[in-house]
Write a structure and sequence with these properties.
single chain; alpha/beta; Glucose Oxidase, domain 1; Rossmann fold; 2 domains; seven-stranded mixed β-barrel; 10 helices; 25% helix
Length: 358
C-alpha cells in the first residue's frame, strides 16, 4: 500500500492509502454531495482547496469528460473513504494527490468543529509524516491569495453562441462553471465570457443586455475590478450573479460579506423563498456569504439551516443574484428557472430602450 499522510492544523496527522502521488497544501473543506464528483473536482471554485468527500464511495459511475465543468481538476488534493480505480487514475493523470482509506466522518467532524482549516498532504512510496507536516507549515506561512481569479479566468474574451438570436450576456469569468454558459446558450443567449479583470471599456464594447458575474474561488473583496464593473453598469444594465457573483454584487452596492466557519458544499441545501414560502433543494459550493445586503438590495431567499442570504433582488435597479448554483450541476434541478428570470430582465430592457434617431 502506498503511504499517504494528511497533516491538519493542530498537529493531528491522519494516515491513509495513497491513490495518486504527490504533495499538496491548501484549505481543507468537505462536500456532502453523494453524486457529481466529476463536476465537483472540475469546479473552479475549489481552486487552492483540498476537497474531502463525505460520501463513502467516489467513482461508482466512472469518469466522463462531458460532465466536466472545466478542462482540469481544481482542488489541490482529494480525500475519500474509497476512490475507484477510474477516479484514482484520472487524478493521477492530472497530477492531483489523492488519499483514501480515511475515516472521512472524523475529517468532516474536525472541520465542522474547528472550521475550514489548512492542511498538508504527502503521498508516495518514500514519504513520511514529516513531509505532510512540512507542507502544512508552508501553508500556514502563506497569506490568502488575493489574485486567485487569475488562475481560473479566461485570458481574453471568448464568445459562445454568436448565431443565437437572444440576449447578449457579458459573463465576468471569476471561475465560471461551464454549465452556466450552457444554461444561457440553451436559452438562445450569446455569451461573451470576459476575464475577471475586464475593463469597463471591454464591457461597453459589447453593450450587453445583462452583466452577469460568475461563481469562483476566494474572498469576494479581492475581486476589485468586478466590483467596479457592477458599480459602473448597474444603473443602465441588468445585473445577475451566482455564488461569488452574489457576494461581489453585494460588495459593489454597499453590502458586506464574511467568511463562514466551514461553508456550504453539497447538493442538498434547502432554500426558502420568502415571498412564496416555497422550499427548493440546491447545490452549493462557497466559503463566504453576504452578511449585510446594504440599502440597494433586498434578501428574497434564505437558507433554511442557518438563515444566510440565498437570493438578492435590486431595490432600485434590475438585479437578481443567487448564492446557490441554479444551473443544477451536479443537481438538483429545482431552480433552473433562474436563467429565465435573468433573461426576462434583458427582454424588459430591450422593450423599454429608447430607439436611436434616424
Amino acid at each position: 500500500m502506498t503511504p499517504a499522510y494528511v497533516a491538519l492544523e493542530g498537529g493531528h496527522v491522519i494516515e491513509g492509502r495513497g491513490r495518486a502521488p504527490g504533495t499538496a497544501r491548501g484549505e481543507l473543506v468537505f462536500t456532502t454531495a453523494y453524486t457529481g464528483y466529476e463536476e465537483s473536482l472540475t469546479d473552479p471554485s475549489y481552486e487552492e482547496q483540498v476537497l474531502t468527500f463525505s460520501y463513502p464511495l467516489i467513482g461508482n459511475y466512472g469518469v466522463r469528460e462531458e460532465r466536466f465543468e472545466d478542462d482540469r481538476v481544481h482542488p489541490r488534493a482529494a480525500l475519500a473513504k474509497e476512490f475507484t480505480e477510474d477516479v484514482a487514475e484520472w487524478l493521477e493523470s492530472e497530477g492531483v494527490p489523492a488519499v483514501d482509506h480515511l475515516d472521512t466522518r472524523e475529517v468532516v467532524t474536525d472541520i465542522r468543529d474547528g472550521g475550514a482549516m489548512k492542511c498538508g498532504i504527502a503521498v508516495g512510496e518514500d514519504v513520511t509524516e514529516e513531509d505532510a507536516l512540512a507542507e502544512l507549515e508552508q501553508c500556514k506561512g502563506m497569506s490568502e491569495h488575493t489574485d486567485i481569479g487569475a488562475q481560473v479566468s479566461v485570458d481574453e474574451t471568448v464568445v459562445h453562441g454568436e448565431d443565437n438570436d437572444g440576449a447578449d450576456v457579458a459573463l465576468i469569468d471569476c471561475g465560471a462553471k461551464g454549465s452556466i454558459v450552457d444554461s444561457l446558450l440553451a436559452r438562445e443567449a450569446t455569451v461573451h465570457v470576459l476575464p475577471y479583470d475586464a475593463s469597463a471599456e471591454d464591457v461597453a464594447e459589447i453593450d450587453p443586455d445583462v452583466l452577469f458575474v460568475s461563481n469562483g474561488p476566494g474572498d469576494p473583496a479581492n475581486y476589485e475590478q468586478a466590483i467596479s464593473l457592477v458599480q459602473e453598469f448597474v444603473e443602465d444594465t441588468p445585473v445577475a450573479g451566482i455564488c461569488l457573483g452574489q457576494q461581489i454584487v453585494a460588495e459593489a452596492l454597499g453590502g458586506t460579506t464574511e467568511k463562514m466557519d466551514f461553508g456550504h458544499r453539497g447538493v442538498n441545501q434547502p432554500v426558502i423563498d420568502l415571498e412564496s414560502g416555497q422550499v427548493v433543494m440546491t447545490t452549493q459550493n462557497h466559503g463566504y456569504t453576504v452578511d449585510e445586503p446594504g440599502d440597494h438590495l433586498e434578501v428574497t431567499q434564505i437558507n433554511v439551516n442557518d438563515d444566510t442570504p440565498e437570493g438578492l433582488d435590486g431595490v432600485e435597479h434590475d438585479i437578481i443574484t443567487r448564492q446557490y448554483h441554479p444551473e443544477a450541476n451536479p443537481g438538483p434541478e429545482d431552480t433552473l428557472d433562474f436563467f429565465d428570470d435573468v433573461l426576462a430582465m434583458a427582454d424588459s430592457r430591450a422593450s423599454t430602450a429608447v430607439p436611436a434617431d434616424d
